[in-house]
């Protein structure tokens, strides 16, 4: 039997019908007066950075997921819904999420701020420009780029190797024509060299804004950025600081470093701040935003990019470690449909009940549960209901999860909002009340880079071992000799598989990971290990979402979804 | 004898010491309640676009200048000071100015919002990001760029000639390495082609935002943008509309089209909005901002880029014509120092009294006075005092201007603020009270393109005639055959000379103008005629202003001036 909830309007219809609270009232709920915040219109505000250094009073809950599939898991929607559910149950809960990039907004899917009755508002503003953080990051990035080429043009006193420049250019747009270019052509236009553009979530400055603990730390990290190496054999790192760019970059980011307050569809506080990629960066909202949430609320719900193999691992090993955060519970989002895909069903067949395929996909949940548990954090599985799920399918998943010894909750936040997340909220509160959390990162940063990579590959992905390309071997040696020996590692691999091969679903065994490129993000403070090609500049589709967008005469928006 | 006013602190010191009024109070002075505006922090606000369609109650005063020299004329400073003076005299005056670009902020001079005691505030925010208008324009521009290359990639159904694409890419930064590039390199990255970047004030979208009368007109103009021509002999224009980009571009600009309210150093209202180049575009703040000013105030002071040959001519022939504005008085700013340069003195020698050189430079003032007068607008000459000016020099200029039959006023707004502009304000009020203005544009748009160009060259620059390159001839024929026959012309030439040769100062005679390139800005609604090379992407200097900038621990800024 198929459960058929009442029809749910489109995301933007729901968003436009919502009556928002003035954001100053939302801020007042958190104990903030008008002088504490800076309004950006009536429904957005910048929060004071000083709160990020205030003592935490809240408890931190991570929302993660199984590996993403085209079936969709709804991790952001569950995060919003869970925060709404907490508030319905009388808790002072805050949601902390990433800001969306314009690239995907105009590319495939239109916006990214939850969905259905579990969204953050104002949906249109959040998806377009928001409070300008990404533009500020793009400006700071572009200033450094311009100062690099300007340095080459005016005599190259630092001896920067024009062929050794690793700092790319950036833009917040899906623009495949900028993946590979030659710049500086023509007389008087500087040094001709190859250049590549990355989309703004892939900018190291995005990761820096997400990891900086305050304005001083921001400036320190910006100065540490390595833009390339010197000419000659020694190949010494050249930093943003050496170019005299740090101060002006910090100025450009003085407001972007402050977290943004908006609201959920049910009027609760949501702090949206930063949005680094989940592969070449760590895929979490900013540390300062999470800390501000912990200073103001009793419960903070946050999420991390992709599945637990990428997002949760980096949340724990990079963000929580950097920020001294203490996550006390985690939610693992799964859907019947995506588990059927893990079990071998094609997307077109997902509407049909298939208990066999679902059963084959269940070990995938178990793997992700163990991933979270090995960090010492207790976990609840949230089965995010979709209209095509049958009772038998839902029961099969729930029964299986019970055998793992972890709680499970049905979740229907897309169709029902916070009410659809109350069962999940109760399970999370149960974990928090049991106080069993004993969070610890997976590895010590003092280990050699290769060992840190091997630890993640074996324990999180289930790999038998790691192979390093000769280029990766060389890079690791250089990084260990140039001050990057003792940072966390940031693994960049496909989000669709636990392996480095996107086609291998479920729980592959008997595989090795191949690290083909390693580089340092000295400002962000981690070493990136790339397994396979990672797309850092998406392209638009044949029919981009942008083509369907329009501002109506009444000021409302069509086509943003 | 040298007049020595008390020492004046640096611009940013003055700005930081100023006690700003909450912007809602400034808005209240204009009769606007809190629901009418959207705050961007405590000292910036977006004004409602609907006011741009309200009936005008104010009278419009243009501030223009003689040709710029390295000596500095202070046109923006006089504009701010004049609006401050009007308010000191009890008038409800509003200042309407352009927004600055980040390029010059980090390049040569750091900031651009008046100077001394005649500035607009908050100076730092205005110079960095402000309310995000330029970033929004850059996004809309970049979306169109990405959609062009995406169209080529996905089969090029419109038959767009990859070598006939005239839409450049843009960035708000001085970045000479992007003047000439090859993009789309590598497999799967689209069509390899040449590309150039222009700085954001040179984006046609900047001119469109500055000339659109409302949201509907904005969308129409965006759709009209010609991005290139079709393959084959016919070379038909391909427009943003054909690419399906218009709706999404309009969405990106929905807030950028609203004027911004800030304040002068003396707490009066200042509307800053848009900032198109004064050469390849028309160099004025937005039409909607000026109209909002006219709807709210009794007196509106506005300025236009460079000297009267570029800025005032375009203000009258392009902006006032497009918007049905009725300018009733003009201020022509001149300084002793820059007139001495027009008379042949080198910059290093300017501190020395030189009555001979000054006398030789005086006809330059007369030429600019006549430039304004031929539009039917009465003019007053403002002698903007500098500390090195001697009494004899000041008297020489004043006496000369008197012989022209136009009023003259000493102006010391940099050192004294509004008080130093009261004499000028009285003279402007005198012109307004006399009601002698009979504004009319210089030419009818129905004239052939070549005739319109010749009219401006002869009557405004004093040229004997115009020579067109063969490329320009071809372009004009194409434009007249493709719907651009009846727009105003936008002359792009050096701002330093009345001719097309930057080295020819004062009032050259016996010269012809050479138009080497003509192209249409179909969205902006004018035809650009380029005389000589016009730099649309500046470079940074050997020691860019950015290197001296820093955010202090107390949150104040160092190095922005």
From TrEMBL, chains A, B:
<feature type="binding site">
    <location>
        <begin position="69"/>
        <end position="76"/>
    </location>
    <ligand>
        <name>ATP</name>
    </ligand>
</feature>
<keyword id="KW-0067">ATP-binding</keyword>
<protein>
    <recommendedName>
        <fullName>Formate--tetrahydrofolate ligase</fullName>
        <ecNumber>6.3.4.3</ecNumber>
    </recommendedName>
</protein>
<dbReference type="Pfam" id="PF01268">
    <property type="entry name" value="FTHFS"/>
</dbReference>
<comment type="pathway">
    <text>One-carbon metabolism; tetrahydrofolate interconversion.</text>
</comment>
<keyword id="KW-0436">Ligase</keyword>
<dbReference type="GO" id="GO:0005524">
    <property type="term" value="F:ATP binding"/>
</dbReference>
<dbReference type="GO" id="GO:0004329">
    <property type="term" value="F:formate-tetrahydrofolate ligase activity"/>
</dbReference>
<dbReference type="InterPro" id="IPR020628">
    <property type="entry name" value="Formate_THF_ligase_CS"/>
</dbReference>
<keyword id="KW-0554">One-carbon metabolism</keyword>
<comment type="similarity">
    <text>Belongs to the formate--tetrahydrofolate ligase family.</text>
</comment>
<keyword id="KW-0547">Nucleotide-binding</keyword>
<dbReference type="InterPro" id="IPR000559">
    <property type="entry name" value="Formate_THF_ligase"/>
</dbReference>
<dbReference type="GO" id="GO:0035999">
    <property type="term" value="P:tetrahydrofolate interconversion"/>
</dbReference>
<dbReference type="InterPro" id="IPR027417">
    <property type="entry name" value="P-loop_NTPase"/>
</dbReference>
